[in-house]
Amino acid sequence: MLTVDDDEFWDGVSPVEFGCLPSLQDAVTVVGYPIGGDTISVTSGVVSRIEILSYVHGSTELLGLQ
Q1: For residue 8, which phi and psi values (nearest 5 degrees)?
Q2: Which of 1, 38, 62, 64 is the most exposed place for a label (fewest CB within 10 A)?
Q3: Global pTM?
Q4: Residue 45 domain boundaries
Q5: Which long-range contacts (CB under 8 A, 24 or more apart) does 38-43 make?
Q6: CA distances from 10 to 1, 2, 3, 13, 15 (A)
Q7: Residue 47 contacts by C-beta under 8 Å, 6 or more apart in sequence?
């Protein structure tokens, strides 16, 4: 988690609002950086699976959609 020394940094900043999780077969668009890539990637498709996945970089398990 990132932090700053001066709390006034956050003045006027609105929190990010996340929508609901998509359901199976919902259409989605995903934006991110693929493994081994150095430019942004955009792809579209439908949700075919929702499960708990192990993440190597965080040494934790998080919800993943495929």
Answers
A1: -65, -15
A2: 1
A3: 0.64
A4: 22-65
A5: none
A6: 15, 12, 10, 5, 10
A7: 22, 23, 24, 25, 26, 28, 65, 66
